[in-house]
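Predict the structure of DUF778 domain-containing protein.
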Amino acid sequence: MSSTSRIQHELCQLDEIDPKKAKFPCCLVWTPLPVVSWLAPFIGHIGICQEDGAILDFSGSNFINVDDFAFGAPARHLQLDRNQCCFPPNLAGHTCKHGYQHTEFGTAITWDDALRSSIRHFQHKTYNIFTCNCHSFVANCLNRLCYGASMDWNMINVAALILFKGRWIDGMSVIRSFFMSVIRSFFPFTVVICLGVFLVGWQFLIELFSFSLLLMGWFLLGTYCVNGLLEC
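Done. Here is the predicted structure for DUF778 domain-containing protein.
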């Protein structure tokens, strides 16, 4: 079988998304983090899924979870389009505009092949929520795929992608599943705000807002201003 035929074979129709079985073919999935998301609900844990729907996530040093999403069931998901990936069998076979850069970074001939390469890379990485985390793993996968003809995936734009384009999980009962996902994501944050204002006063909101700005500033500074600070 030729390389082209093999690639076309791998792009066959995917199974349906099945939240009850935690199967999300070629999706990004997101769930809130204990404590951290209670203070900053825009921060959470993210994973990327294989073509069979199994979730992969970087959740500890030298360790990639397979089909066992850390911190609970996904609350949001976003299915990605494999047709927006570059699967070059050789240097001349690139469909993206980053041929040499893509080859140097590491290419793949299928979706799952890219994810396996990223798994091997992160099995030797030390986890750190501030410098090398689950978003770093997903960004590495997307860069190997050259998803959306881009080699610039990082923590910030991966987080923005799932935050602004991700859908709340629905399942057997759409309304119930939707509200459960939203409640898991925002209820603890609401409780923290209410308790903080009750016990400390409105000054608590200023401190919480400052904490969120510091977090956002760190990731923005490390990603776009200090070269290599958040690379892993």
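The helical segments are 3-10, 36-39, 99-105, 111-122, 134-145, 155-165, 174-199, 203-225.
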